[in-house]
Amino acid sequence: MKVTRTQINRVERYEKIFDEVSAAAKQLSASLDEFEKQLPGAQKLDAYYTGSEWKKDFAADEEGLFPPGMKRGVLSEDGIYNLLEEIREIKERAAALGNM
Question: Contact at 8 Å (CB) between 97 and 59?
Fold first, then answer.
């Protein structure tokens, strides 16, 4: 049996796809591993944001009571809300992949 040029082209085309999907899967797996490690922190952020401490800290920030130059992005209403929303969306996307 002789291999045709069409077969060679087909195998080469699918080999390229295989390599790309394999690399993406490895990258996603590593990212998911890191994401899973960070979920307890995300849960803590959510509890902080929805609790009374965040409101107290936010009010203090509005009054300018924190030291100048202190990093306090966690007190940005949009920042922390958007991060928590992004985490929820990532979880939904990951769950949807399971239905593939």
Answer: no
Distance CA 51, CA 95 (A): 28
Q: Which helix (H) or strand (E) holds 65?
A: none
Q: Would you say the pTM of this structure is higher than 0.70? A: yes
Q: Is 70 helix (H, G, I), strand (E, B) or coil?
A: coil
Number of domains in the chain: 1
Q: Answer yes or no: are the C-beta atoms of 80 and 45 closer than 8 Å.
A: yes
For tokens 């049996």, name the residue: 1
d(CA 45, CA 50): 9
Q: By residue range, what is the domain housing residue 60?
A: 5-97
Task: Record the tokens describing residue 43, joined without a space.
Answer: 């849960």
Mean pLDDT in runs of 10 for the chain (100 residues)?
Answer: 96 98 96 94 96 96 95 92 94 84
Q: Count of residues for the chain?
A: 100
- Rounded to a whole number of angstroms, the CA Rg of the chain reads 23
